[in-house]
Amino acid sequence: MGILSEKPLLILGGGLMGLAIAHELAQKGKRVEILSRSRNEAAGFVAAGMLAPHAEGLKGELLSLGQTSLQRHPRWIESIETNSKMPCGLKTCGILVPFENLKDCESYPTYKFGEKLTRIELLQEVPGLSDNWKFGLLFRQDGQIDNRRLLMRALEKACVELGVHFQEGVEVIEIMKDSNKFNGVKIKDINGNINHLKSEEAVLCCGAWSKQIFKTLPIFPVKGQMLSIQGPKQILKRIIFGPGIYLVPRDDGLIIVGATSEREAGFQKGLTPKGQRELQKGIKSLIPELNQLPHMERWWGFRPCTPDEGPLLGMSSINGLWLATGHHRNGVLLAAITAELIGKSICSSYLSKEESNFLTQFRWDRF
Ligand code: GLY
I need a surface site. Which of 28, 93, 215, 337 has the fewest CB within 10 A? Predict the structure, then answer.
């Protein structure tokens, strides 16, 4: 076992959270190294990129966290676009949630933040919407980012431009500590070589795999299967968010269709006929005509979920090891506030009362 002596801050996980935090810290002048096992598996490449605290019907502190993050997205994206010189596809396109009856509509957790639509108004927004849907809530403030094609690449480029160092194909197999003070990680590279990488600070952002590295974290995978279909440009002007199914239209007519939510699947890889049928049935329940469009891609991934479906943010039980994981369905939305909170916390920058409160509410030991 070799000992590598350099001591940058380590980011454990090269997905969206890892990149977002590395970018934030590098902007603050920190020396950062990202350790990533397999970037293709990152949930940031799987998600549809919705910015949807209202359409998702979030509640309580998670809604406040989501709303705060939504407000911070334009500035966050601007910094990534400036540093990378690449676009991210941020669009406040609005999200429409259809309902079968008035009771469901008026009892939706975020009802008061939306604009209520009748069937006629719904049809003006979404021609071809199936007869099932009689009412709707339009959340104009919600939107999307083109995470798969643009954001992930732009963030990576921005990190490279800011001098962030990457190690890809590296598995963290053990967290090292000395009297409860973080002092590095044991890593295995693609050739099976094991090294102790020394450092005094790290952020664990391994998504669904976090528990494999830090056994006491209450995180489990929730598998999601997705597909995309290609329509003509402007076929849908807004995201449609139905029960168990959503359609996210990109500018070029590509529509991302998501997503199954499979809690029993564990880390079982691959598409299943049942999951894919569920998506097709979902499309039919919203806009049947869309099932005529050509399919482009199908994929799957694992959301990192916690018992209350909120993230784990802030210092862990090990001094010097921060957590930014467990974002479940809301990773793209929460990336902006996560990067800011963790960045400020690590650099001991001023935190507003609201920001300190988020770090308290989303502590790892709140359960
Ligand atoms: N953000 C929606 C999902 O995880 O399916």
Answer: 215
Do the domain assignments include residue 273? yes
Whether 367 is covered by a domain: the verdict is: no
301 and 239 fall within a common domain: yes
Domain boundary among 305, 329, 351: 305
Residues 25 and 166 in one domain: yes
How much is the pTM? 0.96
Q: Which residue range(s) make up the domain with 116?
A: 95-143+220-305
Question: What's the CA gap between 300 and 298, in Å, rounded?
Answer: 7
- Pocket lined around ligand 1, Cβ cut-off 6 Å: 47, 50, 224, 258-259, 303, 329
C-alpha of residue 47 to centroid of ligand 1, in Å: 6
Residue 274 identity (one-letter amino acid): K
Q: How far is the CA of 50 from the centre of ligand 1 (A)?
A: 8
Query: Residue 259 Cα, ligand 1 centroid: separation in angstroms?
Result: 6
Distance, C-alpha 343 to centroid of its chain: 17
Q: Are residues 315 and 349 in the same domain?
A: yes
CA 3 to chain centre: 34
Residue at which a domain ends, from 273, 288, 305: 305
Per-residue confidence in pLDDT tens, the chain, 367 aa? 444 444 899 999 999 999 999 999 999 999 999 999 988 889 999 999 999 999 999 999 999 999 999 999 999 999 999 999 999 999 999 999 999 999 999 999 999 999 999 999 999 999 999 999 999 999 999 999 999 999 999 999 999 999 999 999 999 999 999 999 999 999 999 899 999 999 999 999 999 999 999 999 999 999 999 999 999 998 999 999 999 999 999 999 999 999 999 999 999 999 999 999 999 999 999 999 999 999 999 999 999 999 999 999 999 999 999 999 999 999 999 999 999 999 999 999 999 999 999 999 999 999 9
CATH classification at residue 112: 3.30.9.10
DSSP element (H, E) containing 82: helix 60-84
The count of domains in the chain is 2
Residues 6+ apart with CB under 8 A from 231: 249, 253, 254, 255, 290, 293
